[in-house]
Amino acid sequence: MMRRISSDLASFKNLTFRPGLNILLADKSEGATDRQSRNGAGKTSFVELVHFLCGSKAPKDSIFRTPALIDSEFEIVMDVGDDEYSVTRTGKKPSIVILNGPAESLPIQPKYIERDGHYEISNENWKSILGACWFDLDAPPNPDEKNTPTFRSLFSYFARRQGSGAFQTPVQHSGQQQLWDQQVAISYLLGLDWRIASDLQGLRGKEKIVKELGRAARSGDLGTFVGRAADIRTRLAVAERKIERLSSQLQTFQVIPEYRDLQGEANDITAQINSLGEENFIDRGLIGDLEASLVEEREPDLSDLGRLYEEAGVVLPDMIRRRFDEVEVFHRTIIENRRSHLTNEIASASRRIQQRERTQSDLDVRRRQIMEILQSGGALEQYTAMREELGRAEAEVENLRQRLTAAETLESSKAELEIERARIAQALRDDVHEREDIVNEAIVTFEELSEALYETAGSLTIDATANGPSFEVKIEGQRSKGITNMQIFCFDLMLLELSSRRGRSPGFLIHDSHLFDGVDERQVAKALQLGADRAAEHGYQYIVTMNSDVLPEDGYRPDFDVREYILDTKVTDATDTGGLFGLRF
Length: 585
Prior knowledge:
By secondary structure, the protein is α+β, with helices and mostly antiparallel strands. It contains 14 helices and 13 strands.
């Protein structure tokens, strides 16, 4: 229950509230200028003030951070749990809330400021306290839980704000409120299993991811990343084997400081062996030529010459014959010397070949020794290069693993999500069936409220659909703005009464004058009368802000005097100082 709202701003109109129906009336002056009527008398600002004192955000464009109000303290006295507290907050320090009251009763202990004689608590913790005391929420909330009921969302059903688009549909307190938040909040307030709607929202998030991945894969945006799981699995196996091989090589790798010198020596030895081989090739060719020349060398045959002379009939003298013999001896001597020289050259070439072959053998032994050393290790640069290659291979494996996970998720998630959606849908149907008494209670209460306003009663339908719990409100003629607003009126009263029975409400309901825009005067009168009766019957406050020119004079039952419920403090738009804050801003 709210008891009082005040401020240290001298021009502020302090407000005192009573149990039951409270009407904050704004006199609409016929002489108000356009400038004055644009700002109004502060009825909507009153709702904003209640939200401000109940933990709403205060961004830079908040009215409470305007130069005219930023230094002013605003205070509300109200019941929190079983105790009464005064709560003060300023636009200058919106993150701090000042409390006075039995702090030991609060679920989160505020800090006592001895020099000021009051308690202080952060605005975040203040919201947690209100959530615990009014709506039985955890204080503080569990940060690991998602899609849960929050104080600010639940409270907004009991103090709808025109600026948030709260008067569009009964189930939505803000134009920005998401479907899952509507389902969770209303299920929680009515006493249904809100966790089903929460699980469904979690499922929607997964379905959205899978849908986006599938769309991207089909369009080719992720074709190189996702691909087929089987293909990626094959590439992953090959890449992992490469890592095993590189790791094994690195484990046995030895860094050889003289690696470059040994490598150079091995190259020199190879060049020497090749050079010796070429020289041997030349000498073997030489031996072949020499051996061929040796075969061709023959002694001269002078008998043919003598026979020639004889056939010519020439008789050679003895002296000539003696010279032939000497020439034959001379030629035989030359041929023998030639053969001896060729034989020596062949022997010399053979010795050179043998010597080179021995040298080649010795060099080859040394080269093998060097290669064994080089094969057992390598240079530091080579080791570093192998480490870098291993790093690249490991990165590739990690990338492939992520791709494999994404591909498997994409391929298997759709079926799994369909199964999960079916499970949640069945759980929702079971919950609606098992809590049939709660569902019927809400339906009957809404019908009673709508029947008090219209000849034909409206209806509330609570259904378990594939997209979560559905709350549909119908009143005949619902296409008009006035009928829609009366749907909201009946829905809010039903929600307050049922949630109050379960200890999940602030104990009051605030309706801005915008709720009655376009509503027939007779229905407005019935609504005010119905709000007063239900508030008195069920023990809650119903606070309404209205313009004096739309407050019905007739349409009430004889024993109902609407003037008894008008607050003593009135506001007006006729003057600059007539509004709630007593100034224009």
